Amino acid sequence: MYNFEYHQAKSVAEASELSLKTEEGKLMAGGMTLIPTLKQRLAKPSDIIDLGKIAELKGIKKEGNTIVIGAMTRHFDVAYSDIVKSAIPALAHLAGHIGDPHVRNRGTMGGSIANSDPAADYPAGVVALNATLTTNKRTIKADDFFKGLFETALEPGEILTQVAFNIPDKAWYMKFPNPASRYAVVGAFVAKFGSEVRVAITGAGSYVFRQKAFEAALTKSFTPEAIKDIVQPQDALNSDIHASAEYRAHLVNVMARRAVAHANTL
What we know:
With 266 residues, the protein is an alpha+beta fold. It contains eleven helices and 14 strands. A hairpin with a 6-residue loop joins strand 13 and strand 14.
């Protein structure tokens, strides 16, 4: 890797200030994407600002009808939290199937969300659960956060601090994982809130998206049969060595139907 200056930030304010005043400063959460990128010399930041010691960015709590999770909370902690497992078992399930044990014990929820990897799991949970994302500057609704491939609404100096997930009546996440990385070739998170249904798809396109045809059908009948004949358009889907756009379109429907079926058993 290239040489860089390392900073261990003690607060969100310090981290934000460092990221703005350094020439090419890069924030680091768990480092699950950043460190491999540095090792392969695919990035050359002037400074690395480590968020790992900022206590205020960690923790899980229930507030009203939401589960609030600090951005630096590890996948492992979300997966095994009694609070999360009781209120939103689908989110605990999602976290428990990210990568492998090494990734889950080091990777963070906020790092995954802010990275906006097209095959990451958390973005599907954020969008389907209509979460509210809080930064050091403002709050952002889930539908306004993800903008494109590795692109979010975060601005320079802005740091994700916590995410408030709405507690659904029913929900589940189902993915077809890459056998090596466990990233989602396609993942579908389905959540029902009263008469409203939200369906978020990850892995299929350049970033997470809502499948509104599924949502409309499931609002009328929350059953797998309600969406089995709805065809996912292929034109904006990824096609690579792991799966063609045609196969991903097929998986979108299969994963969503499996998610609905399981949600109805809870």
